[in-house]
TrEMBL record, chains A, B:
<keyword id="KW-0804">Transcription</keyword>
<protein>
    <submittedName>
        <fullName>TetR family transcriptional regulator</fullName>
    </submittedName>
</protein>
<dbReference type="GO" id="GO:0003677">
    <property type="term" value="F:DNA binding"/>
</dbReference>
<dbReference type="Pfam" id="PF16925">
    <property type="entry name" value="TetR_C_13"/>
</dbReference>
<keyword id="KW-0805">Transcription regulation</keyword>
<dbReference type="InterPro" id="IPR009057">
    <property type="entry name" value="Homeodomain-like_sf"/>
</dbReference>
<dbReference type="InterPro" id="IPR011075">
    <property type="entry name" value="TetR_C"/>
</dbReference>
<dbReference type="InterPro" id="IPR023772">
    <property type="entry name" value="DNA-bd_HTH_TetR-type_CS"/>
</dbReference>
<feature type="domain" description="HTH tetR-type">
    <location>
        <begin position="9"/>
        <end position="69"/>
    </location>
</feature>
<dbReference type="Pfam" id="PF00440">
    <property type="entry name" value="TetR_N"/>
</dbReference>
<keyword id="KW-0238">DNA-binding</keyword>
<dbReference type="InterPro" id="IPR001647">
    <property type="entry name" value="HTH_TetR"/>
</dbReference>
<dbReference type="InterPro" id="IPR036271">
    <property type="entry name" value="Tet_transcr_reg_TetR-rel_C_sf"/>
</dbReference>
<feature type="DNA-binding region" description="H-T-H motif">
    <location>
        <begin position="32"/>
        <end position="51"/>
    </location>
</feature>
DNA sequence: CGTTAAATATGATACCCATCATGTAAATGT
DNA sequence: ACATTTACATGATGGGTATCATATTTAACG
């Protein structure tokens, strides 16, 4: 049955939201089109009215979720604390899309890679802006280094099945970043 | 046709080697059992004589490739240079199994997670041993922080479709690690 | 209000893949 | 040498999934 314009727009938004959670939780491959539609409260049939293919859904979901993510702009230490928390590690579905999805991007279409690239570009810029006390070269280096360590640590922590080691990876990475920033600032 | 004991052992080794390359290159899901067997010069039929399932192959491949990997033991700076090189970024199939496969581990069986955890444990220890000038607490922190940043940077660099930004992520992470280690050492 | 167009539902279709069943030939042990 | 075992090949089978075809309902527009 046909629905109103706004209803359709809302359906589309819900599909993207739901897809973003499912993809972060289970990975692109493990989520079927029908599963996404069902989670959005629809059936699989309407899917191709919204998207031209599953690859298209993936690319649009990435653009959607990365555009919505504006985290990391304020206090870098507080951001790193939350990012490197067990809570974030255990909440992939609702957590950072980069941590959940970057590694898979290399097997996706050019459109998906492009969306991720733009997301990373602005995230690095945002982190840089959170380090105003550094001169530009140090700032850029610290932003990229911190971000690589944060993303890497969450990915590692999620892979490790020993809770103690997993917690330690998060905690030590947080400490490592902390000393790294402090020392460059104090130089 | 039956083959000799040694021939069978060699076949098994070849399957694991080939699977490890294919998995690193394309991801676990994108590689079929038949594809692995074909790449090993066999047909799909013999597969279940060697492994009880594809999940079993994945777990055994991880144990195989992580046990074989003893990199990072010597000079940490040289190791980071090679690790964070465009060459390594562009050679996922032959590169570090952690960088290529960790992120997928969280969707795999307990056996696979366990194999990866042990691999990470010894890798962190190896990197720690490459930092003898630090006291134990600093050493542990630096080993984990460096490793998270290295793995994270390669994963990010492989996702980014802009060569300039991708190179920059590698290069700046290298510099960030470098200053991090130097400053802790000089303290 | 009636006509039309569009959004979604229901129901194929076709393909890929993990796994299994059976055949075959060669290695192993006596 | 012979019997037996066994590693691998060939050829199903079954389930899952992306995508398409058609039907249905109702919003949109005159």
């Amino acid at each position: 049955m046909k629905v109103s314009r706004e209803q359709m727009a809302e359906n589309r938004r819900r599909i993207l939201d739901v897809a973003s959670r499912l993809f972060r939780d289970k990975g692109f491959d493990a989520v079927s089109v029908a599963e996404v539609m069902k989670a959005a409260g629809l059936t699989h049939g309407g899917f191709y009215g919204h998207f031209s293919s599953k690859d298209d859904l993936i690319a649009q979901t990435l653009a959607h979720v990365l555009a919505a993510d504006s985290s990391g702009g304020g206090d870098l230490r507080a951001y790193a604390d939350a990012y490197l928390s067990p809570r974030h590690r255990d909440n992939a579905a609702g957590g950072c899309p980069t941590a959940g999805l970057v590694a898979d991007i290399r097997h996706q279409t050019p459109a998906a890679r492009s969306a991720m690239t733009e997301g990373l570009r602005s995230q690095i810029d945002r982190i840089g802006k959170a380090l105003p006390e550094l001169d530009p070269a140090d700032r850029r280096r610290a932003a990229i280094g911190c971000w690589a360590a944060m993303v890497g640590a969450v990915i590692l922590a999620r892979a490790i099945d020993d809770p103690a080691l997993s917690d330690e990876v998060l905690e030590q990475t947080r400490a490592w970043i902390d000393t790294g920033i402090s020392q460059v600032s104090a130089r």
